[in-house]
């Protein structure tokens, strides 16, 4: 369905920038609503809004704004949402990594705050990778749960909404990589980057952000995996 809107969060991220370029180039009939943590000057060809996903009230306000814009005809009907935003920090202590979880939700603490950083532990910085992995797991669990809820909904229109979780692969040219990343990972990334065009023929999992962005765009526009739901690795259903 063209002449509709696709929302992309984390729209200034490595893969998202390529996804935006792919959609504007190959599917220009779609309207893009780009969401970033810190908004800069708006491009006249897209709808850019600031949204910090760590603040629930901002998410509610943004959702109401989108619904209002659609109802007034300012934005075309919503066709898809690409949830690409993330917080990258694999080195700093846990206490400085947002979002925080309210005290009354302490049962969720172990999901996003599994263990306190302990300098006495030799690989205490590994907790950063652990937290990052747990946040990925939370996204996968949420996606599957939302799929089940939509499939069981009594509204036939909601039953047709699908949720796809995309494992983007090992991106070697992440813009976030030089920051908040253990030195060893940065070195490996720099070594892999010029070799990725050769390595990807043996290990397709390692790739550049441009390939991932194209996959995101193809899923968002239903060019790939149309009507499917569940977990995918490089566009292949797992």
Provide a descriptive summary of the structure in words:
By secondary structure, this protein is an alpha/beta fold. The chain contains eight helices and nine strands. The chain has helices spanning 14-26, 56-72, 109-112, 126-152, 156-159, 183-192, 196-202, 209-220, and strands at residues 5-9, 31-36, 47-50, 78-82, 164-167, 170-171, 206-207, 230-233, 236-237. Strands 3-2-1-4 form a four-stranded parallel beta sheet, with helices on one face. A three-stranded mixed beta sheet has the order 5-8-9, covered by helices on one side. It is globular. One of its GO terms (cellular component) is lipid droplet.
| Order of strands, widest sheet | 3-2-1-4
Contiguous uncertain segments of 5+ residues: 94-112
Largest sheet: 4 strands, parallel
Task: Give the proportion of residues in helices.
Answer: 25-40%
Q: Give the termini distance in whole angstroms.
A: 26 Å
Which outline best applies? globular
Radius of gyration: 19 Å
Structural class: alpha/beta
Taken as a percent bin, the fraction of beta residues is 5-15%
Number of helices: 8
What is the count of β-strands? Answer: 9
GO molecular function: 3-beta-hydroxysteroid 3-dehydrogenase (NADP+) activity
InterPro entries: Ergosterol_Biosynth_ERG27 (IPR051593), NAD(P)-bd_dom_sf (IPR036291)
GO cellular component, one term: endoplasmic reticulum membrane
């Amino acid at each position: 369905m063209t002449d509709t809107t696709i929302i992309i969060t984390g729209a200034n991220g490595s893969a998202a920038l390529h996804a935006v370029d792919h959609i504007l180039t190959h599917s220009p009939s779609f309207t893009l609503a780009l969401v970033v943590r810190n908004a800069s000057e708006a491009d006249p060809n897209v709808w850019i809004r600031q949204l910090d996903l760590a603040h629930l009230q901002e998410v509610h306000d943004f959702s109401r704004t989108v619904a209002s814009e659609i109802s007034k005809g300012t934005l075309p009907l919503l066709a898809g949402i690409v949830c690409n935003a993330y917080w990258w920090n694999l080195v700093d202590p846990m206490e400085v990594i947002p979002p925080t979880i309210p005290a009354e939700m302490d049962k969720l603490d172990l999901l996003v705050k599994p263990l306190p950083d302990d300098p006495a532990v030799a690989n205490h910085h590994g907790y950063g990778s652990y937290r990052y992995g747990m946040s990925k797991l939370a996204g996968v669990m949420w996606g599957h749960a939302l799929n089940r809820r939509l499939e069981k909904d009594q509204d036939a229109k909601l039953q047709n909404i699908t949720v796809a979780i995309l494992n983007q692969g090992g991106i070697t040219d992440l813009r976030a990589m030089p920051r908040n990343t253990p030195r060893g990972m940065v070195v490996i990334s720099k070594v892999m980057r010029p070799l990725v065009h050769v390595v990807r023929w043996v290990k397709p999992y390692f790739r550049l952000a441009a390939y991932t962005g194209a996959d995101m765009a193809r899923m968002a526009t239903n060019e790939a995996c149309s009507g499917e739901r569940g977990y995918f690795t490089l566009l292949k259903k797992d």
